[in-house]
Input
Amino acid sequence: MNTITESIRKELLSLTDAEYLAFQGSLIPGDRDNHMIGVRTPALRALAKDVLKRGDAEEFMKDLPHLYFEENQLHAFIISELKDPAACFEALEVFLPYVNNWATCDQMTPKAFKKTKAELSRRIDKWIASDHVYTKRFGIKMAMSEFLDTDFDPAFLEKVSKVKIDDYYVMMMVAWYFATALAKQYDATIPYIEERRLDPEAHRKTIQKACESFRINNEQKAYLKTLK
Output
């Protein structure tokens, strides 16, 4: 552990919230007792900005693997704040193999991606082909957040439908992706449900999530229920 990480760890420990730790431990799988501190997300986001401002981010991000869940969260939030796309992609490729839970994966939302959709698309192809659960989940999440709106790319519907389902957290992200796609791009997405082109459990979860969504109308929900 380098001196920067040691200093940051002390800061994190000073932010411990025992009540939040008890709540958080029920949501995140893993060694909760020894590897969670209990720091609320707004405090982590603020610390990430401070670490960047004072020039400590690079040394901290080199010090892998991290010990605490909150250190992984802080790392993810630092990456999310990086403005240079090349630096962001480089940092991601180093960090993704160390991501070991859904929260760190899902809360990492790099702002730099908005500037480089073509490169992001290429990276997503690589990430969703990964054998690492949370790299794959991250790739699907990026396809969902960046390519279902004005930059809609129907090719990702096909690619995500063919993702190898080898873990619960991958299956749930596939379902989340398709439920969101139904909400945003219904006509392009519904054939994947009608033709049952998803893993059976992902198919069921997609319909469940879609029927819980306020963004899908009652007529569409009634039809989706006939496709269970």
